[in-house]
Amino acid sequence: VQLQASGGGLVQAGGSLRLSCASSGSTLSIYAVAWFRQAPGKERDFVAAISKFGPTKSYSDSVNGRFTISRDNAKNMVYLQMNSLKYEGTAIYYCAAGRWGVSQRASDFDSWGQGTLVTVSS
Fold first, then answer.
1. Which DSSP state fits 16?
2. Torsion angle, CA of 91/92/95/98, rounded to 10 degrees?
3. Which residue from 15, 9, 57 is spatially nearest to 35, judged by alpha carbons?
4. What does the alpha-carbon distance between residue 73 and residue 86 come to, in Å, rounded to a whole number?
5. How would you classify the pairing of strands 9-12 and 67-72?
6. End-to-end Cα, the chain, rounded Å
7. Burial 42-57, CB ≥16 within 10 A → b, else e
8. Predicted confidence (pLDDT) per residue in 34-87, tens digit
9. Residue 27 exposure: Cα atoms within 13 Å on the Cβ side
10. Pairing of the two strands 57-59 and 44-50
11. What pLDDT was estimated at residue 20?
12. In the chain, what percentage of residues exceed pLDDT 90?
């Protein structure tokens, strides 16, 4: 499956953005999907994940309560609603798809999008 992340941009601290992950080449409904982010000079970190049909979700402690992951399988889309953004949320955000279910490990996801840049100004 090929993934395309979009929706990044510049936002002030405390603001909101919604990221989108679109798939092509294969239906997204057979995959669990996750968002990871990589800040400059840092490792790629887990953000959120959602199961194939959406009932199971997982969030990192740093975003829990502020970010919401959702999916629309009819549209082959996964979303990440980000509220109350913090300066440390500045990163490239990647969506990834995997067949192993909800996981916080990057190695469990086989297909990755190109990333979308989110910049949070203080």
1. -
2. -90
3. 57
4. 30
5. unpaired
6. 36
7. eebbbbbbbebebeee
8. 999 999 999 999 999 999 987 899 999 999 999 999 999 999 999 999 999 999
9. 7
10. antiparallel
11. 98
12. 88
Residue 19 token pair: 């990221």
| Two tokens, residue 73 | 């399988």
Locate 32 and state its tokens: 């669990």
Neighbouring CB atoms inside 10 A of 24's CB total 10
Q: Which pLDDT does position 27 carry in this prediction?
A: 87
- Rg of the chain on CA atoms, in Å: 13
Locus of tokens 């999907």: 33
Alpha carbon distances (Å) from 74 to 10, 29, 48, 113: 29, 8, 21, 20
pLDDT of 24 over the 90 cut: no
